[in-house]
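Q: I'm writing up a methods section and want to include an example of the input and output format. Could you take the sequence below and give the corresponding predicted structure tokens, formatted cleanly so I can copy it straight into the document?
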Amino acid sequence: MLVVRGTRVVLPEGERPAALHIANGVIARIVDYASEDPTGAKIFNAADLVMTPGLVDTHVHVNEPGRTEWEGFDSATRAAAAGGVTTIVDMPLNSIPATTTVSALHAKREAARAKCHVDVGFWGGVVPGNAAELDGLVDAGVRGFKCFLVPSGVDEFPAVNEEDLRKALPILARRRVPLLVHAESPAVIADSAPQSAIRNPQQYAAYLATRPAAAEVDAIRLTVRLAEEFNARVHVVHVSSAEGVEAIAGAKTALAPITAETCPHYLTFAAEEIPDAATEFKCAPPIRASAHRDALWAGLVNGALDMIVTDHSPSPPALKRPDGVGDFLKAWGGISSLELSLAAAWTSLNAQRSALNVDSSELSVLCRLARWMSAAPAALAGLGHKGRIAEGFDADLVVWDPDARFSVDPARLHHRHKLTPYAGRSLFGVVQTTFVRGERVWDRSRLVRAYGGLLL
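A: Here is the clean output for your methods example:
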């Protein structure tokens, strides 16, 4: 028996002092902080540090096998543990092979075996022509499926059109698994291309002009229409715009079966702050102006958006600056942030607190953060035993100091490549200890248990 106690334990119903009795990796009982400990129990006292459920990050590109030089299961899950992330769900690209067949899923699982420091689940992919594989992928354990409506950037994971989705969605609806959609309209993007051609490609505005918010809205509307037609669960990934939030809010009002996420980089940065040639900020959809950042936070508070996950999408630095001069139009789009997600989201949320008026709510700010970064992603991936500090749930916990401040030193990050837009940024929220199923994995800046993660 392990007893983990603290004065600031974030439970689904609120924050209070509590002691967790953990047996066989599961929270068996939650009792008063001052309750007598069971005979022979080991004790971990978090004292006045915050204890929240371990983060569940359902949008992580690990890239192994095939592009392990970009990122791998060892380095990605080490970074996760350092950042308080206790479960990740791996995207079906940019690995080779992409996870679009049962055999590719088996290859992915073999690549991950005995290399993971936290628990790992897997999404499958919907691409043109693989509808016959979808049932088998569900049977083999994928949590749902991802698709792109625009080119993904890698040849082995092509984009789908409406005809492809009409073949896939009845299967996903029958199997009751979600479709995660990269929602940008290729037609709107194609119409925007001539505008960017006249700009200096080292200026962020040149890239921003190629992917307007209208592309996101057009794709969301298509996604909602098909979700309603087939009564299939759809989830819009990495929402980036105020217009996207509005479109999703309208769909939810109409009771469409839709959820949506945004990411720490959209909640932290603003287009007007991005320097020339700083291609480490490039992602798709792009980081937009500060008004969009404000709208995304408001969307989380009012329920239009459901969760915050990273879209951790690493690549070698040479792909981020392929010409050595910072051409936004040529650079790979993707941001590495798995280790920093809790601190980045917490810091930005605190900056927004007065505007959002969240302090007047009965639900504390920390409870909201736990819902957005743990409970909601776990529900999306069908991980009913994760994402909450509650009896019967896995003892996945992160103990952290919300008031401790640090400056991001890329050399000390644990994901494979260190180029990050957070470099030098001052963030609040230092992770002290990470538990995965009741076992200490990360403690005071070091990995203390290696390769204990499960493949879910």
